[in-house]
Each structure stands twice: as structure tokens, then as C-alpha cells.
Design brief:
Blueprint: H1 4-24, E1 32-34, E2 40-42, H2 43-59, E3 64-67, H3 76-79, E4 84-92, H4 94-99, E5 105-112, E6 115-123, E7 128-133, E8 138-140, E9 143-144, E10 157-159, H5 163-168, H6 172-179, E11 184-186, H7 190-199, E12 204-208, H8 212-215, H9 218-224, E13 228-230, E14 242-246, H10 251-258
Helix pairs in contact: 1-2, 7-9
């Protein structure tokens, strides 16, 4: 399939999102509330998703939409909504956003029959953006993306996002076991860890307790950069509640350590 026009559209959606989110970033009157699952949501999250949903409805009326703030369900039900589905996280890293930490981004993906084939990750407070589409390579504002060539876990650099997440998912011991096998561990957090895998400056990034909109946009970028992204247990696609991205060369070794 030719995804060039869709990729151009997705990048224009990211421009729309950036204009809204940057204007509200560190705003004194930012409105913050809690959702039913006790996670935070800001007026910026809601405004970005509303704007992108309206543009998609107007410019891609035959496509369905899955977004964090306006869609209650995920998983198999989400995949059944249509052949082409836009999956949006208006602000990935809302906790950072509301505290004024610049590590956050809008995630935009197009999934065809449940498989993400296009992704844009736009982090305007960092001055960064990454994008990819199936067969078109992975790119950033600095150029084309390629994963690292590290082949041994003992030489690998890992970002695990949050100890609490791994502990809450009863995987803390697996994380500790993995940390003892890699060269270096850090918790850069959220989408940034996965983009650094695609850039080749990290070799492994992973976390449990995710939803499809947290993962979908990452998949094409990591894969088109030459890497591999699955669930923590090695299942393909963004529908399994977790993510593991690697340069591909160490993927099976990582899964062997952390799989339930």
C-alpha cells in the first residue's frame, strides 16, 4: 500500500496537536482532573484529542478512531471497528506534562486490520519528532533512523520506565534479573525510550501496563528503523498490554529473561 499521503496527513495532525499542547504547557491555569482509573487528564489532553478526532472525521470519514480520552474500550473490540483505524494518544506522558517536565508527546498511528502501519511521535517541548510508515523507512528531524548493532545483552543499554509499573504487574524480579544481565539501566520514560531504541542510542526499552494508544505509533518507527517491538512476552502488535522494543538482535534473549 502507498502510505505517503496518509503519512503527510499524520504529520499535519501532529502540527495541529503541537500548537495546542505547547500553548497549554506550563500554563498557570492548566486544568487537571482524575479519570476513573485514577490517572490524570488535563484540558490539553482533551483539546488535542478533540481537534485530531474532528480533523480525521472530516478528512478521512471512512476511517475509525481510537483515542485515549474518548474511547472506553480497547483490545479486540478496538480492532474490530474498521479496516483503517487511527489510534491517538493526545499526550503520552501526561504526568510529566502537568509537572512541567518536557518529556511528553502526541502519538498518532494508522492501523490497518489491527496492525499499525504508520506512526508519528511529536515531542514539541523537546524540539523532536519521529515518523515512519511501512516501506518508507523511519525518520526524525535529524535524519533517517537505524537501530544499534549490539548483539550481546552484556553490552546492551536498557530503559525500563518505572519500577512501580513492573512491581504492580508482578514483574519486578524479572526486571531485576534483566538488569543483572545488561550493561546499563536507566528510566528515561514514556515514548522517549522507544524512540532512542529506533535512533540506536538505546538497545532495549520496555514496560507493562500499557494501552494500544501508548504503543501503536511506536511500532512502525521501531520496525522501520530495523528493530523489533512486541509485548513483554513476545506477542506481536499493540494489543497485549505491554511493550518491549529492541534492536532486534537481543530481542529473544530479553524475552527469555522476562517472559512469564
Amino acid at each position: 500500500m502507498d502510505l505517503s499521503a496518509d503519512l503527510d496527513f499524520a504529520r499535519s495532525l501532529a502540527d495541529t496537536a503541537d500548537a495546542i499542547s505547547l500553548e497549554r504547557f506550563r500554563a498557570a491555569d492548566l486544568h487537571v482532573s482524575k479519570k476513573a482509573d485514577s490517572t490524570h487528564v488535563t484540558d490539553a489532553d482533551q483539546a488535542v484529542e478533540r481537534a485530531l478526532r474532528e480533523r480525521i472525521a472530516a478528512e478521512r470519514p471512512d476511517d475509525s478512531f481510537l483515542g485515549e480520552e474518548t474511547t472506553a474500550d480497547s483490545g479486540a473490540e478496538a480492532m474490530s471497528e474498521g479496516h483503517r483505524q487511527w489510534v491517538v494518544d493526545p499526550i503520552d506522558g501526561t504526568a510529566n506534562y502537568l509537572r512541567g517536565v518536557p518529556v511528553w508527546a502526541t502519538l498518532i498511528s494508522l492501523a490497518v486490520d489491527g496492525r499499525p502501519v504508520l506512526g508519528v511521535v511529536s515531542a514539541p517541548a523537546l524540539g523532536k519528532r519521529w515518523w515512519a510508515a511501512q516501506g518508507l523507512g523511519a525518520h526524525s528531524l535529524e535524519g533517517e533512523l537505524h537501530v544499534s548493532g549490539v548483539t550481546e545483552l552484556g553490552d546492551a543499554s536498557l530503559s525500563y520506565n518505572s519500577i512501580q509499573q513492573w512491581d504492580d504487574d508482578d514483574r519486578l524480579q524479572a526486571l531485576i534479573d534483566l538488569s543483572r544481565k545488561v550493561w546499563r539501566t536507566r528510566a528515561y520514560g514514556d515514548m522517549w525510550s522507544y524512540m532512542m531504541v529506533a535512533e540506536g542510542v538505546l538497545d532495549v526499552a520496555g514496560e507493562p501496563d500499557l494501552r494500544p494508544w501508548d504503543i501503536a505509533a511506536l511500532v512502525p518507527i521501531v520496525e522501520e528503523a530495523g528493530g523489533r517491538i512486541t509485548s513483554l512476552d513476545g506477542d506481536p502488535g499493540p494489543w497485549h498490554g505491554s511493550a518491549l522494543a529492541t534492536n532486534g538482535l537481543v530481542h529473544d534473549a530479553v524475552v527469555e529473561v522476562i517472559r512469564r
